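User: For a benchmark we're assembling, each entry needs the component sequences followed by a predicted structure for the full assembly. Here are entry 17's components. Please fill in the structure.
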Amino acid sequence: MRVSRTGVRVRYPETDRMGVAYHGSFLVWFELGRTELLREAGRSYREMEEEGWMLPVVEAQARYLGPALYDDELVVETVLEEMGRAQLSFGYRITRPADGRTLATGRTRHAVLDARRRPARLPDAVRALLEGAPRPGEG
Amino acid sequence: MRVSRTGVRVRYPETDRMGVAYHGSFLVWFELGRTELLREAGRSYREMEEEGWMLPVVEAQARYLGPALYDDELVVETVLEEMGRAQLSFGYRITRPADGRTLATGRTRHAVLDARRRPARLPDAVRALLEGAPRPGEG
Amino acid sequence: MRVSRTGVRVRYPETDRMGVAYHGSFLVWFELGRTELLREAGRSYREMEEEGWMLPVVEAQARYLGPALYDDELVVETVLEEMGRAQLSFGYRITRPADGRTLATGRTRHAVLDARRRPARLPDAVRALLEGAPRPGEG
Amino acid sequence: MRVSRTGVRVRYPETDRMGVAYHGSFLVWFELGRTELLREAGRSYREMEEEGWMLPVVEAQARYLGPALYDDELVVETVLEEMGRAQLSFGYRITRPADGRTLATGRTRHAVLDARRRPARLPDAVRALLEGAPRPGEG
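Assistant: Structure for entry 17:
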């Protein structure tokens, strides 16, 4: 496992009157990507939150290269880009296998908060799991 | 005060590729309507939640009579339809003043839950405030 | 094929600060259900729109029986309830297989519009396909 | 007019189970900001689209500095950062006047497309209007 790949199909309400997927929808798909990366690494984000950890987004960016259409089947490729003491970064690429186009790339940076919502170190158990998670350039 | 009136402008992501507002967007506007009704009655819904009460939707219905377009200025008219021991119902009408059309009508029914998320009686203070709130047929 | 069944996992942005899925999210899942019913019947809704037909929602209702939580795996069961000359109705039930609970039921009614957005009869080809589609009580 | 200021109140469905506004909601608020900037400059984005021009987002970024809560009253400050031959960039700052905190900053870059969805030069009339629009450092 180097790059996590998650399928997603464009939903009707994710489109706007321009006839294509709204640019904000891609942030939601990025989220699906990192959720599945964590699940594949062995710990679901839901479990992490139930144990008192949160990974709020502190920075997000996206570059849009082509339109995604209603009902398109897309793939979200996600990698763990950086893992610091109290921060994580994920990188994303969204492609449409039907024509091989890359529709967007992006990146999110996350803080680590504990149950009192204070900055915290990433738990060692999570860190260990993520050491084995997808990294850039190894896909 | 009989009918609560709230203005709302259609946002770009609230539209879909049919070129009009997505039908689910109207539920969000209904919510804005009852939020403002409660605020006008003297108690914001945020305050109610902070005091431990929740009013989850247990039933929702909407009838769509005409399309709402991007950037349209709409008005949400909201009335308190029923107030039972442990339930509330609100009625809604969404109009577009520019042409006087009614675009949708609807209704939501709400349970009352306490801080432990158990069914509860509506607090007397809230009940008293709502006694003075908008009712159908008095608008 | 009698009842169309579609899996859906609750996404983070579909939840709200009550800690459960927002009630409007269920309308989106209903839509996924009827989209898959149409696809199973042999005609995707995207194809229908490309051929100039639209099925806008003219009425929607939902009854909420229990909360859906983040990351829950749900199933949307969809049936074709009625097929008139120029209208269709679908019925929905959303369940959580993990505990067998039904979380919501609902119904949407749809007009049939042609490429000029005027009320139209449902195309015979679509009608024929839907004759074989899921009906209530046959699931 | 140097900086365009638009008020927005956090809606219930814009929050998530973390109890704060979902990070994607800020992109929607950025959009409200640039929509109002264009309106103040003398041309609504709806009019621009009706005349055949589109300004799709080709790049978006946001930095999150603090949580926005349900029902918070926020202000979106928007400036025109760059205006090239066939591109525009807007910068954003979202503040909460109640405590003076800046909750997020961001930037979007937009292509200019004509009615056939091909890259185009920004119409001179729009360019002239925007020459008078808010710029960074002049607020």
